[in-house]
Amino acid sequence: MNPHRSSRSILFLLLGVAAVACTSRPSSGEAGSPLVLRLGYFPNITHSQALVGMARGDFQQALGREVRIEATVFNAGPSVIEALFAEQIDLAYIGPNPAVNGYVQSTGQALHVVAGATSGGAAFIVRPASAIQTAADLHGKRLATPQLGNTQDVALRAYLASNGLQTVEHGGDVEVVPTANPQILDLFRLGHIDGAWVPEPWGSRLIVEGQGELFLDERDLWPEGDFVTANIIVRTGFLQEHPDLVRAWLDAHVTVTEWILDHPAEAQLLVNEEIERLTGSRLGDEVMAMAWSRLRPTWDPISASLLASARAAFEAGFLLQSPDLTGIYDLTLLNDVLDGRGLPHVE
Fold first, then answer.
1. pLDDT of residue 22
2. Does domain 3-14+24-120+227-340 have CATH number 3.40.190.10?
3. Parallel, antiparallel or unpaired: strands 213-217 and 175-178
């Protein structure tokens, strides 16, 4: 049995089971009790608006006293999608590939992307001892990504294919080993892998803590250096029932994004404090500064990059058919917010 195909089948089976298990549970409790908005996000710098907005109270202020935010911290996009399918999450910050998978698996019924959150923030880091100077040097190498079929995994496989290289499961000689980010750092230090395509801050940690070298900043592969790393998705039922709350959230999201862009030093400090609160450890100052320099908070979903990433996922075999993403975006409320601020629309 092809191990790549087997792992992929298990992923789709899990998502399919979660979709079947959906039940209709309202976000409000008993009559007279506060309405609940259930949020999902990661303790990660690419989810900086969620970290900052929750810490400063921007979202709660925007929603008002009659709405309670129930926040759940996740570590992987597929888990967010499973929770959304089960109607345990209403709104989430999430990477593009899990959003696409959730949309496709639910035949466009479960979710919509309502805004962007982060551009950039991913890099391909190599060990100096592996003597990787050009793409041709990747022949016979062992490389890692955070998860089979995740955003960086797809990016690496697309990069290999564009340079005439194939992975072992497709008859080539490049081994790609999906491994959790903390284990990637351990393997890198031990010399058990030659390189890794990872999101920040793990790229910077591989450089600072693992003495790695930057082989490729993913921004160099995209027009004007922009590609989506995190979006805001909303469960379709919640969007239909509570557009006023989603609009209020997006208004606060734009406010927080502008504050982060205007106060980078304060934002980095606050994000690091939240990461420490949620995970028990903070990023080193050098790692934080380096990682922060490779990403840009935004509300633009940078849709062209998501569509390109979805095509790459299909070509890599992670989607069973070419995805129809015609309705994945609903940017009406975001553009309404931008109108009210005199800011340009996003496409």
1. 38
2. yes
3. unpaired
